[in-house]
Recover the amino acids of this structure.
């Protein structure tokens, strides 16, 4: 994959940079709170698609440039009255390959995904953070689903993610009333992994990414897959899936290393194989 992919110019960029076994993705349009253009979303899809097929990667970290994580998709630019009006069905054709595809990739890629959130996480930006395996936020960060406030219905997985994370009642507060949720409340609700003082965000998220990147990558990926499968399966179906995943993980070098480390009473040294 191209580890320095970006969209250039004043319209912002998405960079995907290799840092050892970690892919670090940065949403870079700080003048617009990292609101994503069509080209930026396409670059994000490309980066995540490449990561899914890269056996040398062991974790993904996503963050925003400047003071904010992401103010969502740039609907103002996409619906500029001076521009050419898209033909009917444009959203139905395009979004499944763009914003919705990003959410699908984040939840399905068999690598742990960590988001660092500062400032605003709005709409698609909020859902991107919630789709990650772990979202760590500065205490002054704000999560907001303003779809109804803007006159249109929610998208990018919000109606699926929120009820599963915080329950239907709180999902209604966020989606139907447009209630903003601060990071501390978000952590208390179980909406995100952790809220920390702003100066500690980089260090806290960095240690989490390092821990995940040093883990048994195949087992982590299979556990993530099983968690996702279990969201729409019966108990029996979930346990059957667990058996197939267990069979695969028991054939890895990291499984053998884990057993040997247990016998020798030492910390395992996983290689992601």
């Amino acid at each position: 994959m191209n580890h320095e992919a970006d969209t250039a110019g004043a319209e912002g960029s998405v960079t995907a940079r290799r840092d050892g076994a970690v892919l670090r993705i940065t949403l870079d349009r700080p003048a617009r709170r990292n609101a994503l253009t069509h080209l930026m979303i396409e670059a994000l899809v490309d980066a995540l698609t490449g990561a899914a097929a890269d056996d040398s990667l062991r974790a993904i970290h996503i963050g925003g440039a400047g003071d904010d994580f992401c103010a969502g998709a740039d609907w103002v630019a996409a619906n500029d009255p001076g521009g050419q009006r898209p033909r009917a069905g444009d959203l139905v054709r395009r979004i499944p390959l763009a914003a919705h595809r990003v959410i699908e990739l984040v939840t399905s890629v068999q690598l742990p995904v960590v988001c660092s959130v500062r400032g605003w996480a709005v709409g698609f930006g909020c859902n991107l953070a919630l789709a990650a395996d772990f979202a760590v936020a500065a205490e002054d960060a704000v999560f907001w689903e303003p779809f109804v406030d803007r006159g249109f219905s929610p998208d990018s997985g919000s109606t699926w993610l929120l009820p599963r994370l915080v329950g239907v009642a709180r999902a209604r507060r966020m989606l139907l009333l447009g209630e903003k949720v601060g990071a501390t409340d978000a952590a208390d609700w179980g909406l995100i992994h952790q809220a920390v003082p702003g100066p500690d965000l980089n260090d806290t998220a960095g240690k989490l990414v390092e821990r995940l990147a040093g883990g048994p990558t195949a087992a982590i990926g299979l556990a993530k897959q099983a968690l996702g499968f279990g969201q729409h399966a019966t108990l029996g179906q979930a346990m059957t899936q667990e058996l197939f995943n267990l069979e695969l993980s028991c054939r890895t070098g990291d499984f053998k290393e884990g057993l040997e480390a247990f016998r020798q009473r030492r910390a395992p040294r996983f290689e992601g194989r």
